Give the backbone structure.
Amino acid sequence: MNTNKLRQVLCALLGAVICTTAAFSFSGCENEKQDKNQSTTDAATQDVATADTAISTDDEANTLTVLESIGIDAASLGIEPNINRNDNISVGYQLEKPKEGDTIAVLQTSEGDITIRFFPELAPKTVTNFINLAEQGAYDNTTFYRVIDDFMIQGGNPEQTSTYGADFEDEFSDKLFNIRGAVSMANSNRDTNTSQFFINQKDAEAFKAEGGWNVLEQNWESAKTQLVNYKDSNLLSTFIDQYGATCYDTDLVPDSVKALYSKNGGNAHLDGAYNAVDRGNTVFAQVIEGMDVVDKIALVKTDENDMPEENVVIKKIEIKTFSDSENTTAEE
């Protein structure tokens, strides 16, 4: 089958797929890598860097089962999922109130403040990167440059690399999800995290209106068919590179996770822990105050590229220590 035929088939497959937005919404701009030293003297950041992760990084075998059953050699395609997991953490814990002394951040924007909590126990490298960049002022006076209502708002400097001096690996988890209010890394492919991030904004009503789990399950059945069709073709990697987000294996998703999305909304297909071809977006924080600001930003007028016609500015990101006296809880 030639490339044009592949494109026709892929277009037909994705015509009714709601998650096609993922194919373009999180593509980070290519930029020249700059050598940057990871440095911080802030005590809170040091706590994150040395946090007791107490997690297993065993490969998620089940995500490879379907590929093996089809006859696809996952390793030859670079598909080697490494899922952070912790059986002592319950599904939904990212909505719990931070503990006294936890590190949080306040995004001071032109539309109001957004406060987030971090999850260094399951995404330590990503959390450290974000805090270091914030401490260095890398996010000061940047914008939310891509905004899609009932989906997400994306920010960060496309020209800014990570504090590691290069792209760094995904940190998927079976306990962190792209539910409403989750803060995740934007990327252009597997293990291409730099500095850009987004906040999931889709609510439960929009999740249901778009078909919820029924549509996600249909998408996965279609994706499996395509994987079978192209398993012996040199076009298989092309399909995976372009439409990996459709390979979200709903057969593996626990009922507790499905219930979490049904109640809170979000973008489930972005969860790398359940993606058969090792695609997704790392969740590293959760909004605990200011979702009304996120919703306000999501409603601004945008152009054909989803860029706000008037800049929505991140003035500064302040790293702070959470105090229980503030009595703050995660917002849904």
About this structure: The domain at 3-326 is CATH 2.40.100.10 (Cyclophilin). Confidence is low (pLDDT under 50) at residues 1-61. The chain is about 30% helix and 15% strand. Residues 178 and 267 are 6 Å apart (CA to CA).
